[in-house]
Amino acid sequence: xxxxxxxxxxxxxxxxxxxxxxxxxxxxxxxxxxxxxxxxxxxxxxxxxxxxxxxxxxxxxxxxxxxxxxxxxxxxxxxxxxxxxxxxxxxxxxxxxxxxxxxxxxxxxxxxxxxxxxxxxxxxxxxxxxxxxxxxxxxxxxxxxxxxxxxxxxxxxxxxxxxxxxxxxxxxxxxxxxxxxxxxxxxxxxxxxxxxxxxxxxxxxxxxxxxxxxxxxxxxxxxxxxxxxxxxxxxxxxxxxxxxxxxxxxxxxxxxxxxxxxxxxxxxxxxxxxxxxxxxxxxxxxxxxxxxxxxxxxxxxxxxxxxxxxxxxxxxxxxxxxxxxxxxxxxxxxxxxxxxxxxxxxxxxxxxxxxxxxxxxxxxxxxxxxxxxxxxxxxxxxxxxxxxxxxxxxxxxxxxxxxxxxxxxxxxxxxxxxxxxxxxxxxxxxxxxxxxxxxxxxxxxxxxxxxxxxxxxxxxxxxxxxxxxxxxxxxxxxxxxxxxxxxxxxxxxxxxxxxxxxxxxxxxxxxxxxxxxxxxxxxxxxxxxxxxxxxxxxxxxxxxxxxxxxxxxxxxxxxxxxxxxxxxxxxxxxxxxxxxxxxxxxxxxxxxxxxxxxxxxxxxxxxxxxxxxxxxxxxxxxxxxxxxxxxxxx
Length: 634
Fold this sequence. Notes:
Structural class: alpha+beta
Largest sheet: 7 strands, mixed
Distance between the termini: 140 Å
CATH class of the largest domain: Alpha Beta
CATH architecture of the largest domain: 3-Layer(aba) Sandwich
CATH superfamily of the largest domain: DD-peptidase/beta-lactamase superfamily
């Protein structure tokens, strides 16, 4: 049989057959290896890798609970919260940190080097706040470039809002980001990087009640870090709401009346020390600080020579001028150096140790008793009694009214200064000179007082001798309305001075406004008994400025301060006010109309109210002799 050539060619050589068998064996071994590897991953270690897979798509997001809302005495919102778009970064998730920082710097307008240093110090796994409250354009840019920015995400958080702008800005205070020092000092309170904390005012003093607690929630995210669903939520813990004693309408009125001046206005309830209004000019808008103040804004505030960051009501100290004569009147009568009826002749000057101390009125006032010395603000009267009292007795009585030390209203309040021999020895290493007492007697010399202290002085005089600790927070309550804290007015002391002495001093203050020779007639309100005292405080010696020059022609730092303090109604006081116009170059009487407007507004006096007839004045003066003085207090 003849063999076919096709069949012969189809036979496989032994060498090729061996190669096929080896290849098949290797393939089988690979498949068996893959099988065992998959079996090991999915069965033996399946739970482990399933957990790792879950964790790879789980991210942590910080949750900041809203701060408590602040209301005025009538329930008007003074501070609340609004949504803010905040940019965060998780360093561990970033692929190219240098490039990411450069992009974020450009998008958020933050210096690259400063941002780089802060990011490098941040925890790799925790969200780091790049910038709070970015605008919608920045949000759109970051969302558009999200694939190029792994580890970067945007979160909506509550941000502080002050709907009334700079009104009561110093009183409400400001917020700022916690510093590394804060985080160490407040470790037990669980503050976190990026949290905001009160830096000034009520926001600072009531931080422990206002702050909302922050924490983390677990969320499922996609490959670009976008949140898909919440795996483990964090329950928000809101801060407590506050109701203040502040009357916003009165505050706004005072802000508007005083807008052209630098200085302060303080209105207080003389019956319990509640602050009704507190103005400090130049004003401060706390909204600028809520989301982190811009560097240029901060520099402008810091370098402004008028110091708008300072709350002048509690931290600026001024010579009290003639309003100190209120304390001097109490010292004169309580120490017995003169009786109310004793008269001192004022010829326009007081000679002491070869020097003549001039009265503000050339030619003098003639014979002055205590009531008229207050009404006409006679300097010679107080030069004379001050020389008889000497500095230690003056200081003793002044300190009874809280002068020379903080009132206790705020943590960073200044205390003013009531000088004494011991103070001068400690401060200047020399003894007190009797001639220095003469200047102190009319509120000049070393004397210093804050506007809040001045308000407390007139309030204590108005209520008949109870020195109250001023306060601003009436109560704190939760979202459910449950009261967490309620302030109880605190009486510092009952002034140990006889009621009849208070009666006489009050009579003198009433004459200041209502008497025929009073220095503050412009403060009078028809139908309301207003009592008050003017004061003009020199900032430098007259020889330096030249008395004949007009105030506006002098450099600002040489111009006099203007003071006016008042209370009303006379027989049942409900409001006491202190006004300090810094370097205004005006006498205190110039600001009496501002006090009149504020008192009339607060007491809701109608413009059509009847004017007291002139023949009613003697009957009111008789009331001082016929009626005992008021007594209030605990």
